[in-house]
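Look at a sample.

——
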Amino acid sequence: MKLSRNKIIIGTRPSQLALQQVQEILGFLRPEYPETTWEICPLETTGDLDKKTPISEVEGTDFFTDTLEKKLRDKEIDMVVHSAKDLPDIIQSGLLIAAITESIAPEDVLVSKNNRKLSELPSGAKVGTSSQRRKEQLKKLRPDLEAINLRGNIEERLAKLNDGLEAIIIARAALIRLGLEEKITEILPVDIFPPHPLQGALAIQIRYGDSDLLSLFSKLDVRKKILFVCVENSCRSQIAEALVNHFYWQKFFAESAGSKPSGLVNPLAIEVMKERGVDISGQISKGFTEIRDREFDYVITMGCGDVCPVYPAKKKLDWKIPDPKNKPLDFFRLVRDDIESKIRKDLYEDSKGE
């Protein structure tokens, strides 16, 4: 298979771990697309430059992605390879998570100065860690230990063991990718030390509408695929697609299509999504030819009855969402909220155990 362009520029943070993650993705890409040139573009984010702010104060923000996402939006790079757990809670307008890879190792691990396990650390020992989640879990298991804010790349964190820390808690996947597994003192069981749900996974981010790269990464994506369908692909299905891809992207990837696409996204659909902080004016009203050869876990019709188009899927749902076309803005708001309620109830909540 050949891409429509000869060179792809990949954005990444500059740490050794981030660069190794790019190589992991290139291990998939190069054999599949040997004629393509893959250029790596390391870029420092705010999180790389600011090594003092505690992670607990910036979790869920673009602290580790801001520069990369700006360069992607500005078309200075073509894609970004992220640690999936570094992504902000809400994906920015105009950008799309093309794939979340399978985690190579979800667990947290303890690395200690004298090879002592967590239960063996002396009372009062200082343990370096970054996230609020880890600090709370450490306090629950060993309230007699002192949790210390830990910042920097993996090499810098390990060096802190020679600077007053008895132990540190970090991601097992990071040490595996850097070939430093021998540093691990103890793998912390996920049932007593639950990790971040995306720990050990990578995320591929592209611009919305880049069908070339979207198709390229579909094989790597472990999320459930959803197709929202209606007739015109102008209102309900566009709102549903945007809600999934910007707010529920961790578990799902969505597309939308219509049997008779109108060619435009309804201005009031754009307006009610702007109220949620997402600009969908760049989304495209499209038909089934643009999504051919894609497989979906769910096809969800939006309540258009007998005129709803039929598309194959592993599971089909029909959401009885009233058509807001030619209705006022308040009606569009009700439709938006109804769609999000169904995403949470029918999709997101049911998938939590997966």
In short: Residues 217 and 312 are 21 Å apart (CA to CA).
